[in-house]
Specification:
This protein is of the alpha+beta class. It is built from 3 helices and 5 strands, in the order ββββααβα.
Length: 107
């Protein structure tokens, strides 16, 4: 194998994939960032350069809903979701920046 070749690139997104709905979130590509916004009009945004992280964060938010009424803020570590989502549950913000969370090792 020729070591000078770079790793394969992900396939380009199709026109349909540039904007899609997933578990109640609208996900679009905006200037190289994948942005998820709830379809219910909430002001939350989930952003990342990696679309897989956005999908995982949306799934984690739905998983957290199953636990949130049964745990206190001190017990969010018991919820089986990524640390960036557990941190957000304790201190909600308008934007969940998965790029910054990844750099911190929280995602």
């Amino acid at each position: 194998m020729d070591s000078s070749k770079s790793a394969p690139m992900m396939e380009p997104l199709t026109k349909e994939e540039l904007h899609l709905n997933y578990h109640g979130y609208s996900i679009s590509n905006e200037d190289g960032q994948y942005v998820a916004r709830p379809l219910d009009g909430d002001e939350l945004m989930i952003v990342s350069r990696d679309r897989r992280r956005v999908f995982a964060a949306v799934r984690d938010l739905w998983t957290a809903l199953d636990y949130i009424d049964n745990v206190s803020a001190r017990e969010t570590d018991l919820i089986p979701v990524s640390r960036c989502i557990r941190d957000w549950l304790v201190n909600p913000t308008a934007v969940i920046d998965l790029n910054a969370a990844y750099v911190r090792g929280a995602c």
